[in-house]
Structures are given as C-alpha cells and as structure tokens.
Amino acid sequence: MIKIAIVGYGNLGRGVERALKQNADMELVGVFSRRDPAAVQTDGASVYVLDELEAQKENIDVCILCGGSATDLPVQTPAITKNFNTIDSFDTHAKIPEHFANVDQAAKENQTVSIISTGWDPGLFSLNRLYAQSILPEGETYTFWGKGVSQGHSDALRRIDGVADAIQYTIPKSEVIEKLKAGEKMTLTTRDKHLRECFVVLEENADEAAIKEEIVTMPNYFDEYDTIVHFISAEELKRDHHAMPHGGTVLRTGTTHENTKQVIEYNLQLESNPEFTASVLVAYARACARLAAEKQFGAFTVLDIAPKYLSPVDDATLRKE
Ligand code: NDP
To answer: Which helix (H) or strand (E) holds 110?
Structure first.
C-alpha cells in the first residue's frame, strides 16, 4: 500500500480524495490543512492541522500538494520536500524552471523525490507536445483550450462595477481545428483560435450596454478575442454554471516523405477539471513512490517519468499485454 497525505483541501484536494478511492494500491492517511480542521468538510477523510504533518513522517510515503500555484506551491513544495516525497501541479509556466531548481535542491539534499507540474497543462499536454514534435520534426504544433471555465477571466468580470457575479468559458474554434487537420497552412492570431463566452449577473440598476462595452474592450482579457456576453439571473448562474468543465486539444500537423500529410491529435473533454487533474496527480504519486524506492532522489517533471511507473500493473504483465 502506498500511504498518501493530501496537503491543502480545495477543489483539487477534494478531487484527490475521490481519485484515491479508485486506486486499490493506495491508502489515504489524512488531509492536512492550514485551516481549523473543523472548518474543512471532506468526503470522510480525517483532517489534521498542517503543523502536525512532520510528526506523521514515518506513516506517509507521498504528500500530494493541492495548494494554489500563485502563492502556496512556490513555498510549500520546497519546504515539504525536505521531509517527504511530493507531487504538485504547479502551473505558472514561466516560473517552472525556477520552481524545479528550488525543489530539486531540497530533494537532493534530503534524499527525497518530487514530481512537479503534473496535471494536464502543464502535464499530459507537455508530454504529448514532446512526443508529437519528436516524431514529426517537420510540422506545426497547436494547443487549443476548452470548452472550459477560465478562473482568471471570470475573476476579471466580477471585478467590474455593476457586476454581481459572472463566469467565462473559453471555446476553441472547431472550424479552425478542422482546417488545420485537413492540412491547410494557417498563421493564426489569438482571435482565430478561441472565442470567449461570458455569463454575467448584473447588480440592480446597472447599465447593461456600458458593462457589455467594458467587457469586450477589456485589455489583455477580451479585446483580442471575439467575445459573446449573456446577461442572466443569479438563479440561472447557480443552476446552469456550477460545474468546472475544461479540456483541450494538442494538434501536430506535419509531413514525412515529400508531401505525405500526418496528423497527431490528443484531446481531453473534462466534466470536472479538478477531479481529472487530481487523477493525474494520483497516478504520478505511484511513480513518485517507485522512484523513492529506487533511491532516484531529486525533482522530476512528467517528461522524466517512464510510462510504466504510472501503472499499478507489473512490468512483465505490461509487456505481455
Ligand atoms: P483552491 O483555491 O480550491 O484551493 C487552493 C488552496 O486554498 C487549498 O489547498 C486550501 O489550502 C485553500 N482553500 C481551499 N478552500 C478554502 C476556503 N474555503 N477558505 C480558505 N482556504 C481555502 O484551488 P484548486 O484546488 O482549484 O486549484 C489548486 C491549483 O491546482 C491551482 O492553483 C492550479 O495551479 C492547479 N491546477 C493545475 C492544473 C494542471 O493542469 N497542471 C489544472 C488545474 C489546476 P488549506 O486547506 O491549507 O487552507
């Protein structure tokens, strides 16, 4: 049995608790939170204060870190890796090299293993871009996101004066994907790849036309996109938009001999982004435990991990199947 601790209990932490129930070779020791355990409602797991984590060192094989990328993980992953094998889903792409270096140092100095930036992007999408680019060196790679909720864009809508609540979906333009797959060569702008659809609840007496204008012209968020704005009631928002779907496509179109066209497509359609991301973290936790047993200490990303380490099935059976 691989003994797991969940550190941080938000959407992702809840997803890990659920994913562990589908993995018979893993056992949840408990959830460790910075908040008062009485305030953390799990699906049944025991909750401890984070300060108690170290005392349970002998009882935990891997900590799955479920904090946020903005401020939690840059501090928590290197600190917790000093005492534990860890997994995180750090997704601030530009800062991954710096995060990797910090965690690698902690892991090597303390003989632990950490696999950072798992999840789907970064994570499975990174892996698929690498496979596709290595196999088809002559070609183009495209990544499309959605349909899915963008947390950052939803927050930007909620900050507008007169907006009571809002959610934003990023939607890939399927007609563009089909043209690329058919071999059409295209130089794509931001506007060509995705459109943005907003569902907005207004405060009483808010000016609908002025708010719509403010949304579609908002720099860095909406001005470079085709943006559709719907005004709906608070009840409709709650009823129709509470799920956290996401997904996307990594597409590589290339040619081999002369003009022989080849297309590689990897597609995810997720009803729950956090539950799926959590399932990826749990599979990589298995790899983490195995690397630790082999004393391969240090930090890793998904690009470093052989696929067989993810599987609960033994090597000989995998070869046979
Ligand atoms: P949340 O905001 O739900 O949770 C983050 C942390 O906030 C938790 O670990 C928890 O820590 C704390 N928290 C949660 N709920 C509350 C609350 N009610 N009051 C106070 N604190 C709370 O984030 P998510 O779980 O949705 O996402 C975590 C990270 O996962 C994201 O930042 C993103 O970087 C990453 N991610 C990566 C993906 C990938 O493909 N690589 C895909 C999706 C997400 P504590 O219990 O200690 O208080």
So the answer is: helix 96-110
Provide the residue type at 235 as one letter. Answer: E
Say whether pTM exceeds 0.90: yes
Q: Which residues contact 145 (CB under 8 A, 6 or more apart)?
A: 121, 170, 172, 194, 246, 247, 248
Query: Which residues, 6+ apart, have CB-to-CB distance to 258 below 8 Å?
Result: none
**260/191 Cα distance (integer angstroms):** 30
Q: Which two tokens stand for residue 47?
A: 């909750």
Beta bridge partners of 200: 166, 231
> Which pair of structure tokens corresponds to residue 115?
């696999």
Instruction: Judge if the beta carbon of residue 81 lies within 6 A of ligand 1.
Output: no
User: How many Cα atoms sit within 13 Å of 100 on the Cβ side?
Assistant: 15
CA distance 218 to 192: 18
The rounded Å distance from CA 296 to ligand 1 centre is: 29
pLDDT in tens, 158-183: 999 999 999 999 999 999 999 999 98
What is the predicted pLDDT for the residue at 2?
98
**CA 173: distance to chain centroid?**
21
Asked if residue 88 has its Cβ within 6 Å of ligand 1, the reply is no
Residue identifier of the C-alpha nearest atom 16 of ligand 1: 10
User: Could you tell me if the CB of 126 is within 6 A of ligand 1?
Assistant: no
Q: Looking at the predicted structure, is the pLDDT value of residue 220 above 90?
A: no
Query: What ipTM was estimated for this complex?
Result: 0.97
Q: Is 139 in the pocket of ligand 1 (CB under 6 A)?
A: no
Q: For ligand 1, is residue 37 a contact (CB within 6 Å)?
A: no
What the block records as the tokens of 104 is 């690698």
CA of 303 to the centre of ligand 1 (A): 24
Q: Is 203 exposed, middle or buried (0-12, 13-18, 19+ CB in 10 A)?
A: exposed
In short, whether 279's Cβ falls inside 6 Å of ligand 1 is no
Distance (Å, rounded) from C-alpha 113 to C-alpha 172?
37
Q: What are the tokens at 130?
A: 């690498």
